[in-house]
Amino acid sequence: MRPITAVAGWLMLLLLPAMAASAADGRIVFLTGEVSVQRNGSEVVADIGTTVTTGDVVETGSRATAVIDLGRGAEIKLRENTRTRIGDLEERMSVELERGGLFALVRRAIQGGFSVNTETVVGGVRGTQFFVAFGRTVENRPDVWLCVNEGEVFVEIPERGDQTVVREGEGINILDGVRLTDAQPYDWTRELNWNMDPDRGEVYDDTDLDEAYADLLDQDYD
Question: Per residue in 106-122, is it b (16+ CB within 10 Å) or e — as a string?
Fold first, then answer.
């Protein structure tokens, strides 16, 4: 299906502790707008080529986006106003979405797997492309949306022990971050810009998620 799954060198290098790049480091390969990387209490303005490693926090500002090559065939694209913490890049690869939304692309099976986590949700895959974002706070915690462009995503709510699989072309809304809805096609998922390669066209995703959220509310809060 086309546009429809649980964050150059340092510009201010002297502000950060010396750290040699390792095989486990990721790298920002594309960005537009204001993007920053936080490490060990320091923050720098990111550029193409900026490295990221476990524990780093990557943030995008308004009208900004960033594509991060995490290595081992995995990439993520951050939407505007997104905050993502880089998790393990060596064994079971993971990133933690703290605010906003991101696209994940896993081109091949990764030993140990790959997951995007929020405070309450784990979305795990071995080879796929999917999108995760925070929705509105309807009760105590924000809803979490997830949809799959290719492959399938295993979704787990560790707090409750609930699990489900979201397949290609389907989306799911995790109400209050802990209650799974049934996976099903949603109109808004077709509007997302899944592209991560600037050589193939526009990378920035300008989907109006507030407008798209009405589709979820109509079906999940009846």
Answer: beeebeebbbbbbebbb
